[in-house]
Amino acid sequence: MFQSFVIISSKNISINMQTDIIPLHDMEDNIIIRRIEQSISLNFNGIHRHNFYEILYFSYAEEGCTHNIDFKESTIKTNSIYMLKPGQVYHLELTNQRGYLIAIKPEYLNSFHHHFDSFLHFTLPDEIPMDENDLYTAVQIIQLIHNELSLKKREDLVSGLTGTLITQLILSINDNIKKSGIDKRLLKLIALIDKYYLTEREVNFYATQMSLSEKRLGVLSKQSLGHTVKGLIQQRMLLEAKRLINHGNLSFKSIAFQLGFVDASYFSRFFKKYSGITPEQFKASLR
User: Fold this and answer.
1) I need a labelling partner for 161 at 20 to 30 A (CA). Which of 53, 137, 191, 218 fits?
2) Helix (H) and strand (E) counts for the chain?
3) What is the helix (H) or strand (E) element at residue 187, kind and residue range?
4) Which of 253, 239, 226, 225 is nearest to 197 (CA)?
5) What angle in degrees, to the nearest 10, is found between the helix axes of 229-247 and 185-196?
């Protein structure tokens, strides 16, 4: 439902508008790119989810402009790049922001860098920090991708440019990780939690997967991320609970079952303990 977009393959983005469900912006193409200022409001306004990666470069955002990623509101900075992962919940009121939106199918993106999502996990900011030179390079690449898809649509060239852009983003993420002091081994921990949190809740499982003792893994996690391994698992469960509540058509009992709780009351106690409010209060706040 994008207007005047450019794509590599034949189908465009569809939007699931079922009543009481977060609209799902679906994508079967490899890559789509467009100017944010040329987008229609339906592509942004209202809470929605993606089944694809989305890179947002804002060349301009007025002072005080905000967006909401996984229920966390933050100010959009002019000359900034954000990356949204599949499954994340997003909201932006489209006003006079300018820049580029790039939607990339997961399989296509991972062909450039296997397990790219391990660099963008739920404990790190969605904004990709970049110095002035790296940002300039990234923007030039984005503009080249847009120009190529708008004109000649040479798939090999688009693939090469997209791979270069992803490499640039990864290098910037790695630079930020080094500056932050986060132990890179913990990226594997986060990826493991993201994959197994529904079935594996014990620290020993993750310690074994990483060939570390529980004590050593706990020290690394606390020092680098400020949370215990148990705390990271609970954060991931809470995030998924919020996403499921936002679906609108699931009962708290169904959500509790999906997350592995014995009953809805236990789920409610867990939710209030780690969010400060009840599931009912959280759902009401979304309205």
Assistant:
1) 191
2) 10, 11
3) helix 185-196
4) 239
5) 40
* Lowest mean pLDDT, pick from 3-7, 83-87, 190-194: 3-7
Look up residue 64 and give its amino acid.
G
3-state SS class at 145: helix
Percent of the chain with pLDDT over 90: 53
Question: Alpha-carbon Rg of the chain, whole angstroms?
Answer: 20
Q: Tokens 């014990």 sit at which residue?
A: 202
Distances (CA, A) of 24 to 2, 20, 128: 14, 12, 24
Query: Using CA atoms, how far apart are residues 206 and 143, in angstroms rounded to an integer?
Result: 42
Supply 204's token pair: 């020993």
Tokens coding 196:
């197994």
Take residue 107 and report the two structure tokens written for it.
């399989």
Helix, coil or strand: residue 192 = helix
The closest alpha carbon to 165, from 120, 109, 117, belongs to 109
